[in-house]
Amino acid sequence: MKEDAKDMIERLRSYFAGFESVAVAYSGGVDSTVLAKAAYDALGTNALAVTIDSPTMERSELQAAGKTAKEIGINHVVVRHDELANPCFRSNQPDRCYHCKKEMLSVLKETASGKGIPEVAEGTNAEDIKGHRPGYRAVKEAGVHSPLAELGFTKKDIREMAGYMKLSNSEKPSMACLSSRIPYGTEITKDLLEKVSKAEAAVRRAGVGQLRVRCMGEVAVIEVLPGDFEKVLKSRESLGRDLKKLGFSRVALDLKGYSTGSMTESK
C-alpha cells in the first residue's frame, strides 16, 4: 500500500526530531522547502535554513527563497559564495557538480558550526542519486544528511508532501543551477551565466513554466514541456529577436521537450 502524504511527513519530522539542531541547505525549491518545513516543525528555532548565494543562482530565486522561508517561519541566513573562483568548477568538466557541491557543503558546514549546529542536511531525493550524479559523491564524502533520499522519497512524493503542507511553492517548476545549461568543456563565466538567465527570462515571458535554454555555442536550444510548444511557437518572432540581441545567432526548439540531464545524454 502506498504511503500517504501525512505519513510521509511524519516520518520526515521524526527523522529531524532525533537531532538537537540542524542546518538545512535551502535553495527555495520544492525539495528543500519540504525539508526546511519538516525540520522547523520538529525543532522550531533549533532549525536553520541556509541559502548559498552564488553567480549560478537566479536573482529571482534568491528573493523567492527568502519569501518562502519567512512563510515557513524558519530562521534563515544567506551566505555569499563564488564558485567561479574555483578553476575546477569553471573549466566545466563532467565532474563539475562534484567541485561545486563540495565547496558549497563546506560553506554550509562552516556556517552551521559557527552557530553551534552539529548536523547538516541537504535535499537530494531518491531519484537524484540515479545516473550521473557527481554532486552526490560530495554529499557522501562530507558526511551530510540527505533525509529525502535516505527515506526513499521520490519527486512525486515530495510534491504530495508540499501540497499537504500547503506550501506556496508546491507547484513550482524544478530548477537547477544556471551552469547546467552550458555544455561540458565550455568555460563557465559570469557573462555566460547572465546570458542564459536573460534568455530563460525571455522564454518565461511567453507564459512557460518548466524550461531550460541550453547554450550550444551561438545556438540557443529551448527546452519546454511538449504542452508548451505552442506558446513558444506563437512567440517565435519576439523570442528570436530577444535571444539574438543576447548574442545567439540561431534559436532552436528541442522537439524532444524538456528533460533533466540532457547535457549528459549528449556526451
Q: Which terms would index this structure?
A:
267 residues, Alpha-Beta Plaits, 2 domains, 4-stranded parallel β-sheet, 3-stranded mixed β-sheet, 12 helices
Please describe what this structure looks like:
- With 267 residues, this protein is α/β, with parallel strands linked by helices.
- The protein folds into two domains: 5-164, HUPs (Rossmann fold, 3-Layer(aba) Sandwich), CATH 3.40.50.620; 178-265, Alpha-Beta Plaits, CATH 3.30.70.
- The protein is built from twelve helices and seven strands.
- The strands form two sheets. Strands 3-2-1-4 form a four-stranded parallel β-sheet, with helices on both faces. A three-stranded mixed β-sheet has the order 5-6-7, with helices on one face.
- Helix 3 links the parallel strand 2 (47-53) and strand 3 (75-80).
- Helix 1 (5-17) packs across helix 2, helix 1 (5-17) crosses helix 8 (155-164) and helix 5 packs parallel to helix 6.
- The termini are far apart.
- The relative contact order is 0.13.
